[in-house]
TrEMBL record:
Gene Ontology molecular-function annotations: electron transfer activity; metal ion binding
Keyword Metal-binding assigned: yes
UniProt name for this protein: Basic blue protein
Stretches assigned to the Phytocyanin domain: 37-133
Keyword entries, A-Z: Copper, Disulfide bond, Metal-binding
Pfam families per record: Cu_bind_like (PF02298)
Length: 150
């Protein structure tokens, strides 16, 4: 009687181990890798006046990269908050990009950018990009996992 109970416990552990191993294999084999996308702000026109409507119809994910191409002698890119976007004013602590070929990774939620040159933001040189958290999904199994690096 003692041996029988012990044998069934071993059988239960073995079944659990097999089920766990199968789940891990399904996760590894079925994962679709989703790379971050790169978007050139303003497309071929680059970062310029009227860029405010550029994000419309595009889907952004956290980790995507926005590429700002512009003439650094007449423009820049300033990362601001909602109030800075609305008022076209950047706080002193804002990140200012000035290379003319800036690559900025977006984070989950709303990301706001303006041109800090006088009058440019008021003339439509600003964008708001909403980036969603993305998931890795498996095509053959209805399971999704959140990547560890986010």
């Amino acid at each position: 009687m003692y041996q029988q109970g012990r044998g069934s416990a071993v059988h239960t552990i073995s079944t659990t181990n097999v089920a766990t191993l199968l789940l891990i294999m399904c996760l590894v084999v079925g994962l679709e890798h989703v790379d971050a996308a790169s978007f050139t702000v303003g497309d071929s026109s680059g970062w310029s006046f009227g860029a405010q409507n550029w994000p419309q119809g595009k889907r952004f994910r956290a980790g995507d990269v926005l590429i700002f191409n512009y003439d650094p002698t007449v423009h820049n890119v300033v990362a601001v908050d909602k109030e800075g976007y609305r008022s076209c004013r950047a706080p002193a602590s804002a990140d200012v990009y000035k290379t003319g070929k800036d690559r900025i990774k977006v984070v989950k939620g709303l990301n706001y950018f303006i041109c800090g040159f006088p009058g440019h933001c008021d003339s439509g040189m600003k964008i708001a990009v909403n980036a969603v958290l993305y998931l890795y999904c498996m095509p053959y199994v209805s399971v999704c996992v959140i990547p560890f690096h986010l």
